[in-house]
Amino acid sequence: MADIKTFYLPDLGEGLPDATIVEWLVKVGGTVRLDEPMVSMETAKAVVEVPSPFSGKLVKVHGDSGDVIATGAALAEFELDPKMPQRAEAESTGHHHGPPKAAAAAPAKGAGAEAPDHQGVVASDEGGEIASGGKAPRADEGTVVGAMQSSDRVHAEQATSVGGVKAVPAVRALAKKLGVDLARVSPSGAGGVVTLQDVKSAAAAGTARIGAAPAAAAAPTRAASGASPAPVATAAAQRTTLSAAGKPMRTTPPTVAATGQPEQLKGVRRNMARVMAAAHAAVVPTTLSDDADIHAWLPGNDITGRLVRAIVRAAKAVPALNAWFDGDNLARTLHPHVDIGIAVDTDDGLFVPALRNADMLDAAGVRAAVNRLRAQVEDRSIPPSELSGYTISLSNFGVFAGRYATPVVVPPCVAIVAAGKGRHQMTPVMGGFESHRVIPLSLTFDHRAATGGEAARFLKAMLDDLALAH
């Protein structure tokens, strides 16, 4: 009898609860050797290649490209080949290849059972019912504010369609890095999904470069008889406020539900949703706002650099906000150094890389570090270790729009500073009024860890530093 081994998805980094299949590197029925790359998976922070834990034939997989697999759930099954090298049972691999201990005898509450052959469909980008696919009803996990989970182990999802192109976020990130226009790539994945290999092949062939002129459409030719060509089909009818009779359209009754297809969150955006929900449930936030008058600034001041410097000086003056707070044990840690989490907005979701040792950097050093972090975020090469461990956060949303905000404090941090869009305002001066440029600032802090007076003094220290000429 063939020796069949099941491989369970290990934790791919820092306790992440699940990962999304990007692409199987070995097909079902194919042979794979020990430690050879088997499948690429996207987590909330990176795309990683998972090595094979066995040598032999891959006989079954428990998910396709775009499927979200819970950590500890079955990922693949192998028929071992005794003639090929195998890892000893007692040899540590750094991976967990067995089911959770609590599930050895009976599934733990909330653990759920393996969803066979995509029967555990929660939602699909293609629409359809949202059900358990004929399985027994799910076990109730209870309700925890900001942390509801399903007990199904495999959540079948499809690659998102943007501009008519189906691809998972990791493929889109690779295409952006390689300068490939996904609309010009021929998809080879199931259902017309563009895979990583499709992007790599297009990049190597140079057939789908971004910005390349589109192929000219063939001009319609007249038939030999001289007859006019058949009319070209018109594009889909445009939406209009008028009916076919030219009369105003009736508005939709409020009882009619809006249409649309559910789209499961994946990767970075999925993790962001979890983090925001957890922060909302755990923190007692309070926000202070004021305007920083930068009328005295001399040419050449870097706004981000000045904001970083102001946070550093405020943190030195009021250490209570450059801190971590442990809500369970009601303990706080004041940090002598200042590591600032810089919020970076991307199409895939929010990243917050850490600007380390900001209190040791000059203006040029801050700019160089920020540019490096942004570049690493954009091409998804930033190490996971650089996305945590900061002592206070900065969000410069004003580069887009908005004046004041209530930014979210993510534990264990105590505070976050948000800078709005700069503007000019009339300011009273001796003898009249002047037009001064100001930057709106919003400071959100966890009121369990800091007092209103400490927060106000922190904000005042920032305003005073930003008011300096350089």
From TrEMBL:
Q: What class of enzyme is it?
A: transferase
The EC designation for this entry is 2.3.1.-
All residue ranges annotated as the Lipoyl-binding domain in the record: 4-79
Q: Does the keyword Repeat apply?
A: no
Q: Which UniProt keywords apply?
A: Acyltransferase, Lipoyl, Pyruvate, Transferase
Needed cofactors, names only, are: (R)-lipoate
List the GO molecular function terms: acetyltransferase activity; lipoic acid binding
What GO CC terms are in its UniProt record? cytoplasm
Give one Pfam family, short name only. 2-oxoacid_dh
Q: How does it assemble?
A: Forms a 24-polypeptide structural core with octahedral symmetry.
Q: Which family does it belong to?
A: Belongs to the 2-oxoacid dehydrogenase family.
Name of the protein in its database record: Dihydrolipoamide acetyltransferase component of pyruvate dehydrogenase complex
